[in-house]
Amino acid sequence: MLSSSLTTAKNLPLKRRLCFLLKLVCFVSSVLIFCEFLIYYVVIFQCRWPDVKGGAHMSDKETSASVLKAIILADTHLLGEIKGHWLDKLRREWQMERSFQTALWLLQPDIVFILGDVFDEGKWSSPQAWADDVRRFRKMFKHPVSTELVVIVGNHDIGFHYEMTTYKVNRFEKVFNFTSGKLITRKGINFVLVNSVAMEGDGCAVCRTSEAKLVALSHKLNCSQQKPNHSNKRCSDVEKLPASEPILLQHYPLYRKSDAECTGEDSAPPGEKNIPFKEKYDVLSQEASQKLLWWFQPRLILSGHTHSACEVLHAGKVPEISVPSFSWRNRNNPSFIMGSITPTDFSLQKCFLPFESRVFTIYCAAGALLVILVLAHVQLLTPPFYFAQRLISKHKAV
């Protein structure tokens, strides 16, 4: 009987330690699951598709049939084998994959546009490195057949103009079915895809081909819209397209002096806003910008490249939205654009992803609490209640 009591007494501290260890594991697991999985649902669930004019007077069936729901993001910059550390890759790619997959599941867009710089080292990649980057991209940005994915080329995918080669361009086009001057028409809405890296204007082979396609497409669109400067004779044998003013999708923004006029919490930092932009490097040249505006007379331009948000009005009537980077490596507050688009109108809304600083704050607070609990358990740190109780006991004894 005495032996049994001693055994029970010895086992009691062990059970307490195991119980405490189990509680710690549950606590740590809960923090990890929230910060690495649930937080994306909590944040993106708050995003709502914007309404377009007339949408309030339509039935749900009419709205879903006539309004195209589009997600626009930019500059994912998947790290390569040269500059990419494995831990950095693992962290950033997990963040983007969870954000993208959560957005698809919650928002169910009709189409997703990625505005270039999909890869960080596409301009340098060997065939083997390119194949690995493409494999990882397809895993991260997998999508159901009900959602279309359209990818625009950027300078990090094929190199700046001086690095761009036919081989790199063809390699990108083969994977993503992209060609400059390609028209995508969905629900009567015309989207023009532009290889802005090829808008150098120096007559290079890729530039000549790209501009020729854009000019031909411009002629088709203008004839379809019956522009005054296009006679019926010139348009008699031209294939008719939906008479909807096009939306331009490209990587480089049109020419602007700097980001000085850009506002918003995800615009460029104050110290960078007044730095002048370099033509053909930070933005398109003035000449190339005027060509695109004249050729297409777009109702909206969507671009990336600067990693920061900006809204510019060209010629006093054509809005351009610069979409911030989708990667936490470039921003503390990445975001994407949600667009409700019809053949005659559009409405845009920004959806922010979890702030990385807030995730770190949660981890730091959880780590501090964990240390306090462990110290209190091993009695290296006395809980405040017991500490006060001991002081009162000592005072009474004196």
TrEMBL record:
Membrane-spanning residues: 20-43, 360-387
Bilayer topology term: Multi-pass membrane protein
Cell compartments where the protein resides: Endoplasmic reticulum-Golgi intermediate compartment membrane
GO terms of biological process kind: endoplasmic reticulum to Golgi vesicle-mediated transport; GPI anchor biosynthetic process
Cofactor: Mn(2+)
Keywords on record: ER-Golgi transport, GPI-anchor biosynthesis, Hydrolase, Manganese, Membrane, Metal-binding, Transmembrane, Transmembrane helix, Transport
Domain Calcineurin-like phosphoesterase per the UniProt entry, residue ranges: 69-308
MF annotations from Gene Ontology: metal ion binding; phosphoric diester hydrolase activity
GO CC list: endomembrane system; endoplasmic reticulum-Golgi intermediate compartment membrane
CDD domains: MPP_MPPE1 (cd08165)
Family, as annotated: Belongs to the metallophosphoesterase superfamily. MPPE1 family.
Function description: Metallophosphoesterase that catalyzes the removal of a side-chain ethanolamine-phosphate (EtNP) from the second mannose of the GPI-anchor protein intermediate. Participates in the glycan remodeling steps of GPI-anchor maturation to allow an efficient transport of GPI-anchor proteins from the endoplasmic reticulum to the Golgi.
Protein name stated in the entry: Metallophosphoesterase 1
Annotated source species: Edolisoma coerulescens
